Amino acid sequence: MARKKLGEILIQAGVLDEMKLRAALGEQQRWGGPLGKILIDMKFISEDALVQALSHQLNFPAVRLENRDIAARALDLVPVEVCEQHQLIPFNIDGKFLEVAMADPTNLSIIDELRIKTRLNVRAYLAGPRTIDRAVQQHYRGGGGLSLDDSSDNRPFIPAHSQMVDFEEKSPSKVTRDALLGADPEQVAQAYARTASLDEAAGGGEIAQLKARIEQLEALLARDEDVLRKLLAILIQKGICTRQEILEHIK
Questions:
Q1: Nearest CA to 65 among 152, 150, 153, 156?
Q2: Is residue 55 classed exposed, middle or buried when 0-12, 13-18 and 19+ CB atoms within 10 A define those classes?
Q3: Residue 6 neighbours by CB under 8 Å, 6+ apart
Q4: Neighbour count for residue 128 (Cβ, 10 Å)
Q5: Would you list the domain boundaries of the chain?
Q6: Choices 2.60.120.10, 3.30.300.160, 3.30.530.20, 3.60.130.10: CATH for 1-156
Q7: Are 129 and 36 in contact (CB under 8 A)?
C-alpha cells in the first residue's frame, strides 16, 4: 500500500487546506527542502499542530526532545550528515533498540539503513522538523548562536522573489537588483547596451566586442543565479540560516 503524502494527511486531519498546500508545494519546487518545514516557515501550520496531526494519523508516538536527556552513545552511532539529510536524531538506547526522533517516521528505507549500520532495532518517534534541527545543531555541532525556537513561531516567511531594491550607480541610470540574487541579468545587459550606443561612433569593431562581452556577462549571471539559489536552499534546509536572516545581511 502506497504511503499517504504529507499534504494529504494534513488536509484529512483538518489542519491545512488545498490552497495553502499548493502555495507550499510551489515554494518547495523553487527552494527545495522538506514540505513540513516549509509549511511551518510559511506559518500555514504550527509545529505542534503538525506533530499532533501526524502522530494521530500515522499512529506514531511523539517525543519532545527538549524534555529528554539525549544519550551521547546514541549520537555516536549515527553521523551528523545522516541526521541532517533525513531530519532525524537518535536520542536513546534501550536494550537492543535505538530510539530515533524523525520528522518522517514512515521512511522505512532510512530506518532499515540505521538498523543495518547500528546493528540495533530502530524504534521511531515523531518530532517536529525545527525541533530536530535545533537538537542536531546543539548536540552534534555544538551550536547555540542560531535561534531555531519554534515555540515563538516568530520567523516571517520571505517569498522566493523578495522586494526589489534600487541601488544608485555613478551613471545616470539605476540598475534594479534582486535582494537575494544580485544584479538582474536583463537590466545589466540594457545598461551595457546604453553605454554601447554612446560609443557607436568609435567604430563597429568595438561595438561587436561590447556585444560579445554582454553575452558573456548574461551567461555568467544566469549561471551564478542558479548556483546561489541552490546554495541558499541548502543553507535554509539545514537550518543554518533563514530567508529573513539572508535578506537582513544583504540589505
A1: 150
A2: middle
A3: 35, 36, 54, 104
A4: 26
A5: 1-156, 164-250
A6: 3.30.300.160
A7: yes
First to last CA, the chain: 49
Report the C-alpha gap between 187 and 88 in whole angstroms: 44
Contact 130, 47 (CB under 8 A): yes
- Name the residue among 146, 178, 161, 165 with its Cα closest to residue 242: 146
> Which amino acid belongs to residue 1?
M
Per-residue pLDDT, 4: 74
pLDDT tens across 25-59, in order? Answer: 999 998 888 888 899 999 999 999 999 999 988 88
